[in-house]
Amino acid sequence: MNEDRDVTASRAGRGDVAVLVPAAGRGERLGPGLPKALRELAGSPLLVHAVRRLAQADCVGHVVVAVPAGAVDSVSALLTPVLAGTGVGLGLVVGGAERQQSVALALAAVPGGYPIILVHDAARAFAPPELVDRVAAAVRAGSDAVIPVLPVVDTIKQVDPDGAVTGTVDRSVLRAVQTPQGFRRTVLAAAHAVDTDGGATDDAGLVERLGGRVTTVPGAESALKITRPFDLQVAALLVDP
Ligand SMILES: Nc1ccn([C@@H]2O[C@H](COP(=O)(O)OP(=O)(O)OP(=O)(O)O)[C@@H](O)[C@H]2O)c(=O)n1
Ligand SMILES: C[C@](O)(CO)[C@H](O)COP(=O)(O)O
């Protein structure tokens, strides 16, 4: 049975950006419980926190969420009130086994009229709207693919299989990569069409494999990925009072 759904139609003119939200992961590193995107922080699921912030970015006209199997109805009930009155359209698809597949499925459900696509992890539920607008603006200004990055603050070592240090990496050329990642729609579609093996850990990696140019903008500390239990404690500090 195909559970995919267009919940609301977006209003023309609100924004030129559609955001794909992969939210179909299990959250194994967070420990047992509901799928991670549906776990609550301060009374709301992480997915609600994430979509609420996306809708606060003026550039966003449509959101497509890739949800765990069987969760279309419950997510629809959660997100419809969040987006009511914002003019942001909502589509829901059932995600795939890997993040890359979830993104591809969401991409296929984006209506026409959105030349810029952002991909944003539900697990980065507290990414600020300013970051969303910053990434979209960089694509609008001419970049094919844009990622938000932060400098690496730790010293980074290479180790052998026994854990013995084999070298120290020059961290000045390294960056930690966040989402939302932004793309010209045609570029993201081409990257996903060519590369379907599920091996890329981010969407910019698919563009890199195609030989495309990926540029960077400053990231945001609050866009941390909630992966392990400690991250949830940090994220609790970011909830609006
Ligand atoms: N098959 C998958 C796997 C992941 N994701 C989404 O991709 C984002 C980044 O993945 P991650 O934080 O690693 O989430 P999980 O895969 O759920 O985490 P874990 O590896 O701990 O199970 C999350 O919003 C997650 O819901 C997805 O949509 N579909
Ligand atoms: C896309 C991402 O959030 C960028 O940092 C990250 O690569 C996701 O990785 P994960 O291993 O699926 O958590």
Describe the structure.
The structure is a single chain. Helices cover 28% and strands 25% of the residues. Strands 1, 2, 5, 6, 7, 8, 11, 12 and 13 form a nine-stranded mixed sheet that branches. The protein has helices at 46-55, 72-83, 99-107, 129-140, 185-194, 203-209, 229-236, and strands at 5-8, 17-22, 40-41, 44-45, 60-67, 89-94, 116-119, 145-151, 156-159, 165-169, 175-177, 181-184, 214-218. α1 runs parallel beside α2 and α5 (185-194) packs across α6. The protein has a single domain (5-148, 177-236), classed as Spore Coat Polysaccharide Biosynthesis Protein SpsA, Chain A, CATH 3.90.550. The chain is globular and about 55 Å long. The protein starts with a strand and ends in a 5-residue tail after the last helix. The chain is built from seven helices and 13 strands. The mean pLDDT is 94. The protein has 241 residues and is of the alpha/beta class. The structure holds cytidine-5'-triphosphate and ligand LQXTBERG. Cytidine-5'-triphosphate is lined by residues 22-29, 36-37, 66, 95-99, 102, 121-123, 225, 227. InterPro entries: IspD (IPR001228), IspD/TarI (IPR034683), IspD/TarI_cytidylyltransf_bact (IPR050088), ISPD_synthase_CS (IPR018294), Nucleotide-diphossugar_trans (IPR029044). Pfam families: IspD (PF01128). Its EC number is 2.7.7.60.
